[in-house]
Amino acid sequence: MYQKILLATDGSVPSEAAVDAATQLAAEQGAALLILHVVDIYGYYLAGGGVLDLLRAQGQEILGKAAARAEALGVSFTSRLLETGVGGHRVAALISQEGRSWGADLIVLGTHGRRGVDHLFFGSVAEGVARLAEASVLLARSKAPR
């Protein structure tokens, strides 16, 4: 059913559920997997290179953990680290754009399931991807308490 699955991960608990779902689905269906992490440098750009280097290193670590899961299941994958940049590209837009460019037929990511005031202030990358993506979107939620 799915041939190209894009997994967007940020290392959060809900994102771990997305890693499990995407890698399992890719293994079951023999799909190629693109593991993606977006470093959102928007609020950190003025902080300088040290902070940005730390964010990039954390991103590589997050990608490495997801890659290990894919390898354990024998899934064919590639991984990519993207940055939002100063020009205003937001995380959801970059994930959706990458899905389009790569030809993903499914995008998998975690959701915190925020509601009310939290949702108003923090928004939702998952909601943005669901709105912007041309591919189907699978939102994975952790069973851990929010």
From TrEMBL:
Pfam families: Usp. Residues 1-141 form the UspA domain. Gene3D superfamilies: HUPs. InterPro entries: Rossmann-like_a/b/a_fold, Universal_stress_UspA, UspA. It comes from the Bacteria. CDD domains: USP-like. Belongs to the universal stress protein A family. This is Universal stress protein. It comes from Acidithiobacillus sulfuriphilus. The lineage of its organism: Bacteria, Pseudomonadati, Pseudomonadota, Acidithiobacillia, Acidithiobacillales.
